[in-house]
Write a structure and sequence with these properties.
By secondary structure, the chain is of the alpha/beta class. It has a single domain, classed as Indigoidine synthase fold. About 50% of the residues lie in helices and about 15% in strands. It is built from 13 helices and 11 strands. β3 and β4 form a beta hairpin. The chain is globular. The two termini are about 30 Å apart. Bound molecules: pseudouridine-5'-monophosphate and manganese (II) ion. The site of manganese (II) ion has 3 residues, from loops.
Amino acid sequence: MNQMIEIHPKVLNAIKHNLPVVALESTIISHGMPYPDNVKMALKVEEIIKNEGAVPATIAILNGVIKVGLDHDDIEYLAQAKNVYKVGKRDFAYVISQKKTGATTVSGTSLIASMVGIKVFATGGIGGVHRGAEKTFDISRDLEELSEVDLCVICAGAKSILDLGLTLEYLETKGVEVIGYQTEELPAFYTRTSGFKVNYKLDTPQEIADLLHAKWRLNLKGGVVVANPIPKAYSMDEKVIQKAIDSALEEAQEQGISGQDVTPFLLSKVKAITEGSSLESNIELVYNNARLAAKIAIEYQKALIK
Ligand code: PSU
Ligand code: MN
């Protein structure tokens, strides 16, 4: 595209030939999980996508260059690098012009994926409207970006560090549909339920691909959220996780954590309080999302050729 974006040859080949590609974010590597679990997770996610028959494209900024598709060394570098920026729209220009290293959030990854023509993106959880946002105005850029780019994001819902009800309202205002994969209920990341309903339930990757084609052929600009519940075997006890989230929120308030630091702070506190058991769940749900994302990408491309 230009000198600022470097697309891995395998990803470029797939995009050119209409092969299925799945974008992956990198904030989950740098800010979401500790080393070396983050490397293991990032590599296995790519493996899963390849095994399903799609091409993975992890997106990050390495020393001022946006990379679409990282190799093993890049992932290892990013996972251990110090002072990695957390990058959404407002951070790109600074990080690139200063030749820094940055990990893209859901919003940052969505922006780049859409620039290069990738339509499907797998992650763990999306950002959303934070609790107390009526005072703090803390609403993730993820929601705004998803409303602007044609991209299907497969996630396990959102963590209840957020206000899930307000997050759904915001997505409705922005015209982003929330599809439950084989569920009527919005999953809450660690748990399969949240008490909130999704907009529509769809049961197969093909039905989701059909919905994407219907939306974008009509030129309805914007993304689609697919909420894929964590597998039962890895879902956590609702009370345990809720307690951990409540005390993490309390601590964030006491310490006056704000802005970009809120989400990483809460994630690491929850992990510490649950003594790492949340980490295993977190990793497994990402694998589960990657598998579904690859299947959706494959069905999407099939329908494109038809
Ligand atoms: N939620 C998670 N794990 C994560 C994130 C969110 O369960 O790693 C990351 C994602 O990269 C997401 C970002 O895009 O945090 C949202 O940050 P903020 O709330 O500052 O917009
Ligand atoms: Mn925020």
